[in-house]
Design goal:
The protein is of the alpha/beta class and about 250 residues long. The protein has a single domain, classed as Purple Acid Phosphatase, chain A, domain 2. The chain is built from eight helices and twelve strands. A six-stranded mixed sheet has the order 3-2-1-11-12-9, covered by helices on one side. α6 links the parallel β5 and β6. The model has no long low-confidence stretch (mean pLDDT about 95). The protein binds zinc ion. The site of zinc ion has 7 residues, from loops.
Length: about 250
């Protein structure tokens, strides 16, 4: 199966639309969405509408922002900017889209034999996986060979082969990883709507589970339009500013 992997769109329509248009040429058969469809950006309905149109081969899990927007979580651990954006989003989503966000399933979710998706960690949907120590804990407690995760907004790869643990930041315009049969992998496609690795371009992946090849891509989009939309909505200025630097 060829999967298109999308994460952390964060209501950034300009980024999401650009990724979808570009990815159409990649001939994927199913779509994996790793959560945080909304929160931060100013186009929540456009993004949720587009995700809802992606069926039937669509697998989604919820993110921490989706939970706060839907009222599943109070957002007590959010900073003021994130909380302001979440509350704004709750007020803007159509009833149908709010219901869709509220009903997004909790990860981890199995998508085929040996492949799973989650938002933060497969052990806890809200936990960030940044380091080899974080990855080690997951590898020692969670068996699935290939897991795609989001949440950190940093395209990255963690792997375990025998007793060897590896970490790699995925940089550049595109690249390819061939997974080895005995290895186990935690793979982050990065964020579409709010990259945080100092590369402002939108980030996504294609995974071919038969060939066991992962390809990542970064593409430029109309950041100025996203920023203008955020400012016009009256959302905190910092949410617009950070898009230009990818932080
Ligand atoms: Zn996120």
């Amino acid at each position: 199966m060829r999967y298109l992997i999308l994460s952390d769109m964060h209501a950034n329509w300009e980024a999401f639309e650009t990724v979808l248009r570009r990815a159409r040429r990649k001939r994927y058969e199913a779509v994996l969405v790793l959560g945080d469809l909304v929160g931060y950006g100013a186009a929540p309905n456009q993004v949720v509408d587009a995700v809802r149109r992606m069926g039937p081969r669509l697998y989604t899990v919820r993110g921490n922002h989706d939970k706060v927007v839907a009222g599943i979580d109070s957002g007590g651990n959010f900073n003021q900017t994130a909380l302001t954006a979440a509350q704004w989003t709750t007020g803007r989503l159509t009833p149908g889209n709010l219901r869709y966000v509220r009903d997004l399933p909790q990860g981890p979710m199995k998508v085929e034999e040996g492949v799973a998706i989650c938002h933060g960690s497969p052990l806890d949907e809200d936990t960030y996986v940044f380091s080899d120590v974080d990855a080690w804990e997951i590898f020692s407690r969670y068996e699935t060979p290939v897991t795609f995760f989001g949440h950190t907004h940093i395209p990255s790869l963690f792997w375990l082969e025998g007793k060897l643990l590896g970490v790699k930041a995925l940089r550049g315009t595109s690249g390819r990883i061939v997974l080895s049969p005995g290895g186990r992998y935690l793979i982050n496609p990065g964020s579409i709507g709010q990259p945080r690795d100092r590369d402002p371009r939108a980030s996504y992946m294609i995974y071919d589970s038969k060939k066991q090849v992962v390809t990542w891509y970064r593409i430029p989009y109309a950041i100025g339009e996203s920023q203008a939309r955020i400012r016009k909505a009256g959302l905190p200025n910092s949410l617009a500013d950070r898009l230009a630097v990818g932080a």
